[in-house]
Specification:
Order of helices and strands: EEHH
Largest sheet: 2 strands, antiparallel
Shape: globular
Radius of gyration: 13 Å
Strand order of the largest sheet: 1-2
Number of strands: 2
Number of helices: 2
Distance between the termini: 15 Å
Length: 70
């Protein structure tokens, strides 16, 4: 996976930061998603939404109900 490496114990480490500027409305939607899904942070919610969007466009797969950390 680009932007990540595998450590000796097999864990992926996040090594790149991406900054995204959102409108107030977009941020409110991310927060609504976060609270509805009981996610620990905006970052986790944004990562999950990105993962789901990519999967919907055929750029990966995601199990329904899986967490972004899985």
């Amino acid at each position: 996976m680009r932007g990540a490496h595998t450590t000796a114990n097999g864990d992926d480490s996040r090594v790149e930061r991406v900054q995204v500027i959102l409108t107030g409305e977009e941020l409110a939607l991310v927060d609504d998603f976060r609270y509805e899904k009981r996610m620990r942070s905006r970052t986790a919610a944004a990562r999950e939404l990105l993962k789901r969007g990519l999967a919907a466009e055929g750029f990966g797969t995601t199990a329904v109900g899986s967490k972004s950390s899985e």
